[in-house]
Amino acid sequence: MRAREGRIPWLGRHVARLRAASAALDLVEPADGLEDLVRLTAGSGDRVVRLELRDGRAQVTTRDVNAEQSPAIVVSEEVHRPYRHKTTRREQFGRALASARRIGAQDALLVTANGTVAEGTAWNLFWWDGPALYTPAAELGILPGLGRSRVMELTTVREEQVPVAALAGRSLFLVNAVRGIVEIGMLQGVRVLRDPRTAELSSAFWPD
Questions:
Q1: What is the pLDDT of residues 164-184, one digit of tens each?
Q2: Are residues 85 and 59 in the same domain?
Q3: Is there a contact between 138 and 144 (Cβ–Cβ < 8 Å)?
Q4: What are the helix and strand counts (H, E) for the chain?
Q5: How far apart are the first and last CA of the chain?
Q6: pLDDT per residue over 8-32, tens digit each?
């Protein structure tokens, strides 16, 4: 999650998702006071904050924010498998990211076994097609990210199942609750068109 000048947007939602995932996966229920622990560790700066739960025990760490813009994305050969809960079992994403960086890209997009666009290694995907904004359908088993939810609060979004070819010529952006909205610069070595509507959404993404 993101700490912005000491404030953590949607902290309650982050903790609620963690508790819901713990229950769904039959894990040890976390103790109360997680929000206070996160705020205390985050401090007053601009940081990425990680809350991890192991055997019911919470650990909070922080790191610098990656401010990289307009990343080059490649389509990974790693087959996407459903990832409905945010857990540390992220091997598919780790392999996809490592492979992308070996060939000079910044990140990777995973697709399902039948070639349907799914999600990035730590982000959800959106694209403009004419007047409408689209994102991969949740029923694919993608993570329902808080950044994704925020975009869907800000504007009408259609959920679709599409092949990679459907993204050609579209303006694309990624989103998560750390980076916010980030325009994709290149996909598979082809420059991605920019759309002014993405900048408008970005300016409204973070709550006051």
A1: 999 999 999 999 999 999 999
A2: no
A3: yes
A4: 5, 13
A5: 16
A6: 999 999 999 999 999 999 999 888 9
